[in-house]
Amino acid sequence: MNEYVSQYYRCPERYLKLSAKEVRAGLEGYFRFGDNIVCYGPYNGTKASYSPAGSLSDANCDTVAADGEVSVPFDVERVVDNLRFERYASAGAAAQVLESPLNRLYYLVRPLLPVAVRKHLQRIRLSGWDKISFPQWPVDCTVDNLLERLLLLSLRANRLECIPFIWFWPNGASSSAIMTHDVETAAGRDFCASLMDIDDRFGIKAAFQVVPEERYEVTPEYLESITTRGFEVAVQDLNHDGRLYRNRQQFLTRAAKINAYGRRWGASGFRAAILYRREEWFDSLDFSYEMSVPNVAHLDPQRGGCCTVMPYFIGKLLELPVTTTQDYSLFHILRDHSIGLWEQQIDLIMEKHGLISMIVHPDYIITRRERETYEVLLKHLVRIRDEKGVWITTPNEVNRWWRQRAEMDLVKSGDGWRIEGEGKERARIAYAREERGQLTFSFVSETVSC
Fold first, then answer.
1. Where are the alpha helices (DSSP H) in 112-163?
2. Torsion 299-301-307-312 (CA) sign
3. Rounded Cα distance, 262 and 245, in Å
4. b/e map 96-123, b = 16+ CB within 10 Å
5. pLDDT at residue 28, rounded to an integer
6. What is the DSSP string of 234-269?
C-alpha cells in the first residue's frame, strides 16, 4: 500500500504507514471514499454495491488516521489496480465486444460501407453513453483523488506541515501534453506532410501511429519524412481490422509481427486500433510505452477507462492513457466542431497536473472545417504552454522522463532534501500541504516542518 502512494508522488516512505483492515478475498463491489472517490474492490464494512449508481457505503467513516498511521477498510493496491486495469468492467468485457456477432459482421462489411452509413451505425452503437455513471464524464480522476486523499491523511497522521516529493514533470512544468496522429487510410498518410507543416507552425511536435499492413503502403521514405522533421513514429496495430485481441493465439501471432515492425522502424510506442485492449496480454508487446487505454471510454466501442490522468506502469510497459476525446468522436458522434469539450477536459486534467493526451487523425482533418477546429486547438495548447507552463512534448519524451522519475530518490540533506538519480537536473522538489481541508502543492520549502 505504501508503495503505490510513494511511487505516484516519489515521496519518502518514512511518511507513509498505510494499513488495511482485514478484507475477505473475492468480495468486490463499489463503495466510496469521501464525496468524490468511487472505488471498486474488496471492502471491510457494509456490503459493497454491484453498481456504482445510487447510495454507496463511505469507507471514510471506517478510516483512522492517527499516531503516524492510516488504517483504511479496503485494499488500496487492489482498488487502484482494478481501476487502472479496468477490472471493474464486467468480466470479459473485451471478449464480449470483440467476439460478438454484430462486431464481427460490422468489420466484415465495413470496407463496403459509405462513411455516412458507418457514422450512423456508430451513433446507434454508442447510444446511451451519456447515461453511464462511472467512470465520470468527461474526465475521471478517481485514482488520482484516491492517492491524493491517502497522502493528505498521512500528512494529518504525522502532524506535519508538509511532505516533500519529486514533482510530476521536469523543470516544474504544471502539466504535460502530447499530440498523437493515428494514420488510418492512404488519404491520411498522404496528408501527413501538410499536417506536420501545421503542427510546426505552432511549434508542436507529434507522434504518428502508422498501420504496418494492408491499409496503405508504408515506405522507408515515408517513415523518414516524419522522423527527420523531429516527429515520432509509433506502431498502430497490425492491419487495423479490429481483431487484434479477438483470441489469445491470434494475438500472439500478430504481436510477434507487430514487435518486428517496431524493431525495424525503431519505434518505442504502440497503440491498438479502435483502442481495443486487454491489459493482461500487454506483456507480449515488446515496446517501451503503450497508448490504447482511455481515461473514460464512454464514446469508444470498448467501454471502461483507467480513471487516471497520469502515466502508470503495466508490467514493463508505461501506459500513456488517452485523456481527451478523439477528434472522430467529437466531429462525428457528438457533431461538435468547437473545442469547448477539449478545453473543459484540459482544464480538469490540469487541476490534477496530469497528462493531456490527444488523438487527432490526419484522415479526419483534411476538410477545411475540421482543420480549422484543429488549428484553434493548437492555438489553445500554445496559450496554456506560454501562460500556464504546460510541457508540450512527444510521447517518447514523456516515457523517458517518467521512467527516470520512477528511479529517482528524495534523500535527506542537512535541514533539507536533495534528489538523486539520472535526470535529477530537471527534477524539482515540491511540498504537499493542507489548506482548508484540501491537499495543495508548492515549490516553497518549510524545512523545519518537513
1. 115-125, 142-157
2. negative
3. 18
4. ebbeeeebeebbeeeeeeeeeeebeebe
5. 87
6. EEE-SS-SS-TTSSHHHHHHHHHHHHHHHHHHT--E
pLDDT at 91: 45
Strands 317-319 and 289-290, sheet pairing: parallel
Helix (H) or strand (E) holding 77: helix 76-84
Q: Three-state SS for 66?
A: strand
What's the gap between Cα 350 and its chain centre? 13
Task: List, edge to edge, every strand of the sheet that includes 429-435.
Answer: 163-166, 429-435, 438-442
Q: How far apart are CA 60 and CA 408, in angstroms?
A: 32
CA distances from 101 to 251, 277, 394 (A): 19, 19, 38
| CB distance 281 to 310 below 8 Å | no
Residue 386, C-alpha cell as written in the block: 506560454
CB-based contact 135:142 (threshold 8 Å) = yes
CB atoms within 10 A of CB 401: 21
pTM of the predicted protein model:
0.93
Grouped pLDDT means (10 residues each) for the chain, 450 residues: 93 91 74 93 82 90 91 94 92 58 60 65 78 95 98 94 96 98 97 98 98 97 98 98 94 98 98 97 98 97 96 98 97 96 98 98 97 98 98 98 98 91 97 95 72
Alpha helices in 202-339, H assignment, sequence order: 220-227, 248-265, 327-328
Task: Spell out the residues 6+ positions from residue 25 whose beta carbon is closer than 8 angstroms to its own.
Answer: 42
State which amino acid sits at residue 367.
T
Judge if the upstream peptide bond of residue 138 is cis by omega within 30 degrees of 0: yes
Amino acid at the residue 80 = V
What is the DSSP-derived secondary structure letter of residue 207?
E
Burial of 339 (0-12, 13-18, 19+ CB in 10 A): buried
Burial of 139 (0-12, 13-18, 19+ CB in 10 A): buried
* Nine cell digits for residue 7: 511511487
> Residues in the chain, how many?
450
- Say what the pLDDT of residue 111 is: 63
Count CA atoms closer than 13 A to 275's CA, side-chain side: 28
Place of cell 509509433: 234
Give the pLDDT confidence score for residue 43 in this predicted structure. Answer: 87
Please state, in angstroms and as integers, the Cα–Cα distance from residue 397 to each residue in 175, 319, 326, following that order. Answer: 14, 13, 22
